[in-house]
Structures are given as C-alpha cells and as structure tokens.
Amino acid sequence: MAELTEVPVSTSESRLRDMALRAREAAGVLRVAGTAAKDLALSRMADDLWAQRGAVLKANARDMEVARRGGLSVPLVNRLSLDEKKIAAMVEGLRALIGLPDPVGEVVSGWRRPNGLEIRRVRVPLGVVGMIYEARPNVTVDAAGICLKTGNAVILRGGKEALNSNIALVEILQGALAAAGLPAKAVQLVMDTGRESALAMMRLTGGIDVLIPRGGAGLIRTVVENATVPVIETGTGNCHVYVHRDADPDMALRILLNAKLSNPAVCNAAEKLLVDREVAAEFLPRSLAALAGAGVEVRGCPETVAIWPAAKPMTEEDWETEYLDLVIGVKVVEGLDEAVAHINRYGTRHSEAIVTRDYGAARRFLEEVDAAAVYVNASTRFTDGGEFGFGAEIGISTQKLHARGPMGLREMTTTKYVIEGTGQVRE
Amino acid sequence: MAELTEVPVSTSESRLRDMALRAREAAGVLRVAGTAAKDLALSRMADDLWAQRGAVLKANARDMEVARRGGLSVPLVNRLSLDEKKIAAMVEGLRALIGLPDPVGEVVSGWRRPNGLEIRRVRVPLGVVGMIYEARPNVTVDAAGICLKTGNAVILRGGKEALNSNIALVEILQGALAAAGLPAKAVQLVMDTGRESALAMMRLTGGIDVLIPRGGAGLIRTVVENATVPVIETGTGNCHVYVHRDADPDMALRILLNAKLSNPAVCNAAEKLLVDREVAAEFLPRSLAALAGAGVEVRGCPETVAIWPAAKPMTEEDWETEYLDLVIGVKVVEGLDEAVAHINRYGTRHSEAIVTRDYGAARRFLEEVDAAAVYVNASTRFTDGGEFGFGAEIGISTQKLHARGPMGLREMTTTKYVIEGTGQVRE
Q: Cα separation of B189 and B155, whole Å?
C-alpha cells in the first residue's frame, strides 16, 4: 500500500464521519430518484466534463509534474496522465451508462403466502459506497457514474499522486449533480490521502455500506486485514491455461498467446500454463518458442526445463504469484486430476481455462475448478464487464459473497423485501 | 461477548488452520456431490440423531449441571436444555431439508455473446462456512443440515456452556456423514471455546469463505470489529410499528399487540410504536392499556407521557435500543415524513411496519424506509425464513451485501460464470 505513507492527521475519522453523514443524506435522495433524474445528471456530468476538460488537464499537469520530480515508475505515470482522448473516453463511459437499464426497482421475485401476505423482493441501492483506489483519475469518473446510475452515494479516495486531478474532476461532477437538481454530496472526495484517513475509511462501520478497493494485491490485502465495513475484494488473478491431451494444438496456442500477451498487466491475463504430459514434448517447444519470441520469460517445473532448457526453474512461491508481467510459469501434469488439484490449490479463483476436444474433460473442469469464471476453449481475457456485455464494470470480484466475477450495475444494488398485508398477524 | 473469557490457548490458530484445510477438502467433495447423496446423508443424520438421543441427553445433562452450578440465567438455561421433544424438532428440521429443492446447479442466467461465447451464471456452494453462536445446541444441527444440503463444509463454534451437547451431536452427525459415504470432516466442531479461538476463527482469511455469527448484539459487534473473513451480520432488530392517521384502529391494535407480545425476545418483535398526532389521543390510551395489561413497560416521548401518564420518559439511548423484553418505546409524530425519518435514523434496518388505509402513504413508506423487510398492514413478526416459505433459515441478515432479510438455502450459495467457446480470443 505504497501510497499510504503520509503524516497521520488526527481529525481524519471525525471528518470522514461528517462526509459519511452527508453521503447518507444524499443517498436518501438518490434512493427514491427516478431513472430519468439520474440519467439527466449523467448527461450533465458528461457535458460539463467535456466543456471543462481544460481545467482537468491543467490540474493533471500539476500532478504529473510532482510525479516526474518524485521519479514515479513509467506504468504509474501512464495511468496518472490524462489527455483529451482519455477524457473523451471518460465522457463516453458516462454517456454509455445513460443507455443501460436501471437495476433499481427490479422485482427479483414475488409470491403469495397461504395467509394472503404478498411478498416481493425488490432491487434497491446499497446506500453509501466507498472506493479506495490508486492513481487512476478515470476510476473517479467511472465510479461516480456507476454509483449515480445505481442510486448510491459514493465516497472516493484515490491515490495521492492524482489528488489535483481528482479535485478538479469531483468539482465538475458535483456541479453537474447540483445543476441537475440532485445533491452534490452524492459524490465526495477524501482530500486527506494519508494512511490514517484510509484506515479510518475502512473502519467507518455504519457510515459506509460497502467498500470496494481497486488496485494491487497490497492495497486489497491491507483493506481486507483492516476493514470492519463490508468489503468486496477485487482483482488478484493467478490464472491458468490448461492444455488437455485432447486439445486442438493450434487453438491451444492461439488461446495461450492471447491470454498471456494481449495485456499482461491485467488480472485476467494468464500467469501459468499447465500441459498434459502426453502432449508436452510436442506442444511446449512450439508454444514456449512463440512466447519467448514475444519477450516472455519462461519458468518451468523440472520436466518443462528438460523439454525446454531455456526455462528457469520454478520456485514454490512462483506457483502462487501473479506476475502481471511478461513472465509465465509452466508445469507438466499427468492429466485432468492433477491440473484441477493444482489450480484449486494455487489459483486465486479468478479465471481458469481448459483447452480440449474431450466432452467429459470439459464438463469435469467446469464443475470441479473453483473460480469466478471457468472457460472451455476460450481465453481467460474475456473476464470483463464489457466482454460479458454488462456495459459497465466497477471491478472484478474474487470473493464469494454478494458478487463474483465482473461486477456490473446489478452488483451495485441490494434487495429489500416488500410485504403487503390486510392485517395479518403471526400465530 | 460474555462467553469468550477462558484462558488463551496459543495453538488455537494452527489448530483452526488444520480444521480449515480438512474442511476445504471436504468442501471439494461436497461441491460435486449430487442432491441424492446429500439427501441420503441428511436422512441418515436424522435417523442416527433420533436413535442416539440418549447420548445427547446425557451430554446435555452434564452441561446443565455445570450451568446450574454456575448460576446461569433462566433464558440461557432454557436455550441450553434439551429434551426428547427438542431433539424431535431437530430431527424434523433435518428431514424437512430433504424435501427442499437443491439450489446448487441452478442456472441463474445465461446468454450468448456476439462472438459466440456462451456464458452461464451457475449457482455453486460457498465452500467453507464458519458459524459462531451461543449456547443453543439446536443451532449445531440446523447449521450442519443447511450447510450439507447446500454443499458447504461447516466449522461450528458454539458457546462453551453447550460444549458437551455439541460434542455428542457432532459425533453423531459425523458418523452419519461417513456412513452415507461423505466426508465426516464436512461438519467440524471447535472444541476450544476460549476467546482466542474465536478471534482466530474470525481472522482465518482464505480458510473460511463466510462467517455467520448468530447471537446477541455483543457477539455480532465483536465479530464485525475483528473479522478479516467475509461476514454476514445477523439479527439486531429495533423494529417499529407506525400507526398512520388513516389506520384502521382495530387492525393497528391487533398488529401492535402481535408484534410486541407474540415473542418479545426475538429480533423481529416490535420495540417501538410511532403514532400520528391526529390519532394519538384516541389510539394511545386504548393500545397502551392493552400492552400494560399484558405486562409491558411503556416508555414515551413527552407527548405520550402527557396522554398516558403511566409511561416513563424516553431517553435518547432508548430510541436506539433493542429491548428484547416486555418494554416498548412510544413516540407521537406529525406524520409520515417524521415517521420515516425517525425509522431511518434509529432503526436497525431489520423490519418496519406501517398500518394505514391510505394508498399513497403505504407506497411512500415501502419506498422510503430503508430496511430488510418493510410491511404494510402486517406484523413485523413475519420476517422469518419459515414464514416467508423458505423451508429453512440460517439467520436473518441485517447487512446489505449478499443476503438481506431471512437467509434460506439460496443465500448459502454463490455463483460462478461458466463460459464455453470454440477457440475465441480477445481482440
């Protein structure tokens, strides 16, 4: 949790409590706001963000200057930096939300009891959402838009490197909310980016209904270890591609290369390759040459090293590691049983794929592997709200409570039971 | 958390880690066990529990003796003590599960993407469930049965006063599992009832997929404050009955008496009465006389005291308190706005009722009150898995993530995405 290293501020908790109270009031208004009112505000947000992009870019330039002086890494600078194209993408994201169905008010189920009570389970907003994330200003706009569409107030705490950008963005978003007749405090930014404010946010029991951390494994772990408010864990993906003995080798190679290379820095990228012994001697030289040719460092079990001597030996720790980089770990397995056992032991329950033409092997893999998304004959890279057709995504949950896998608008809601009677009392 | 006061045992955590590993293995078997295999084990559990009730009653007698010597309160002794009738009820509970539909395998939704990927969201077990509860041996059997039916392994930690009873029960349940060909370790009991073992259980990240505390507000608070594993909060209910100016007074009285008196010790009992000023002078003397006549202590706001001088004055703390006793707090309100604001401020978001003949008032109450269950013209006492028709209930969630309100079998599952392709890769 590299960004939480500033001097503690003793008033963090009381300031956050105040923010949470204002968020609760705003949530009360949003809860009963109609879809049209929310969509109008989204439209206003998109217009204002585009109209005032100059102010955002100016604020971002200040962040970038501090970042460069501080010697931040290239990937961090890439995530932090904004330009007109990136702002246009944020604006597009807001506009896309307008066209999506509003999950609030959906009657999930309903029935009549023998005593005449009519029970309906109805989708309602969560209330106050907290987001803790790193130096990515686009998350500020994404999260604000998704929370507004789903009737939730949101308290945002971005990385300190993006503070000026976030202040500029939230000012615009709040102005748009007010102009559209909704409470500006529906979107609030935590200005204090010190460690203490993050911890206080994690422990704001009663103030925040759900906290969603988005970022690296360190941030997620810190939140899970310290939070007393309900948390949705997102993201860590130690994903496997398993090439079964009956795989179409060309398809297996295509899927492997896509899963590893199309974006190695994201959570749904493949980190490990498992290959059945029966086909290893044929498949590995061909596939590892292709990976190595694309700049991937290959690490392997002893059998892999025997077949492909350029591979470095794997350590036990390697099997658990999400590289997020041009590195792959390779293991030769006896067959399906060993592959499933290995995945269930070392995987992070994110996305797991088998490549096979064998019907029974496919069925067993789908059934026995414990993960948010299990694939037959497709790349793990499809685990994504957009690719699933959700239209918007707030993150990918790797926990089992509430939401698992890509979280769209529906996952940002809860339900309540509405019970209508004619004077019924319980015996 | 009165029961967590024994001497710390330093090996608690490593012992719990071992239990969790065995539970994880058992969960792997249960995850793919068919409904018939699980139902057979439930049937065997019911048979064995009845056949061996003598051993359970003997163990319970030892617990009762210790309890009596220790001078435990009457309600605690009532919950702890077993007899043939109570065991018959446990057996009935197990048998009832056999007849219920198995939620595992349900296809919640499914669609095809433009690229031909077939996506299905399928219901699967949670994995390893932890239960922390007080001295109620029936929870041991209920929880074991519900977890088995839903394919979950369970780690049970009951109150220390019930330890002998729980050991006897779990021995029988494990024997039945083994006899039915399922892993005995699917149901395990934490023998160490010290505080340290409870804390270790709350922090068993990766070992327990969800922890469900069942008990008083102190236990729930301790779990929420200390847990790093995902928790489902259950139970606290500061429930209101709001008598609107257009209520049928007879219906309002019937609902109020039922909500307060039919079982004052449970979470869905009414703790507060709100009455519109316009009808207070007529409704209060009649209803408060009825409540007082049934032994209820009446506390009230100044207006209530003016109308019913026998009422004690309410304190600010009273408005937040779940009495679980023959006590009621009464407030005269101006109308719907004040009633809703009061409930949203002081309620615990459990069960809230309005009594009215006014269509608009009913709709606004249902929409604006933020609670797991909102009622029009019915008693709050219906918030219950049995009364909702779920057939089984593991608790009543008062949080917003994952489950809200009575939790039946479906709430003891998660989902996974199953994606079948023909070699698709991401652009």
A: 6
CATH number, residue B145: 3.40.605.10
DSSP code string of B389-412: T-S--SEEE-SSSS--EEE-SGGG
B223 and B268 share a domain? no
Please list every residue in chain A whose beta carbon sits closer than 8 Å to the beta carbon of residue B31: 368, 370
CA distance A350 to B28: 17
**Nearest C-alpha neighbor of A425 from the set B203, B120, B251:** B251
Q: Does residue B251 sit in the same domain as residue B371?
A: yes
| B171: Cβ contacts below 8 Å, ≥ 6 apart | none
The dihedrals phi and psi of A9, each to the nearest 5 degrees, come to -115, 120
User: Do B19 and B148 have their domain in common?
Assistant: yes
**Residue A16: which domain range?**
12-233+406-419
The CA distance from B304 to the nearest CA of chain A, in Å, is: 25
> Does the ipTM surpass 0.95?
no
Q: Does residue A375 share a domain with residue A275?
A: yes
Q: Touching check for B389 and chain A: CB below 8 Å?
A: yes
Q: Would the CB atoms of B426 and A387 count as touching at under 8 Å?
A: yes
Going from the C-alpha of B267 to that of each of B86, B133, B324, the distances in angstroms are 21, 15, 7
Distance separating alpha carbons of residues A197 and B214, to the nearest angstrom: 32
Contact B407, B386 (CB under 8 A): no
Enumerate residues 43 to 102 of chain B having a beta carbon within 8 A of any beta carbon in chain A.
none
pLDDT tens-digit series, residues B267-325: 999 999 999 999 999 999 999 999 999 999 999 999 999 999 999 999 999 999 999 99
Euclidean distance between CA atoms A153 and A127, whole angstroms: 6
Q: Which residues of A touch B150 (CB under 8 A)?
A: none
Contact B279, B304 (CB under 8 A): no
pLDDT for A11 equals: 67
Round to whole Å and give the CA distance between A193 and A32. Answer: 32
SS3 B311: coil
Residues B260, B194: one domain? no
Task: Tell whether B6 is covered by a domain.
Answer: no
Residue A358 DSSP symbol: -
Question: Which of B269, B266, B267, B302 lies closest to B284, judged by CA?
Answer: B302
A to B CB pairs, distance under 8 Å: 203
B70 Cα to chain A: minimum distance (Å): 34
- Sequence-distant (≥ 6) Cβ neighbours of residue A78 within 8 angstroms: none
Kindly state whether B404 is in contact with chain A, defined as any CB-CB distance less than 8 angstroms.
yes
A264-278 tens-digit pLDDT: 989 999 999 999 999
- Within 8 A by CB and 6+ apart from A239, the residues are A259, A267, A268, A269, A270, A271, A272, A347, A348, A350, A351, A352, A353, A380
Q: Does A387 touch chain B (CB under 8 A)?
A: yes
- 10 Å CB burial of residue B7 (0-12, 13-18, 19+) is exposed
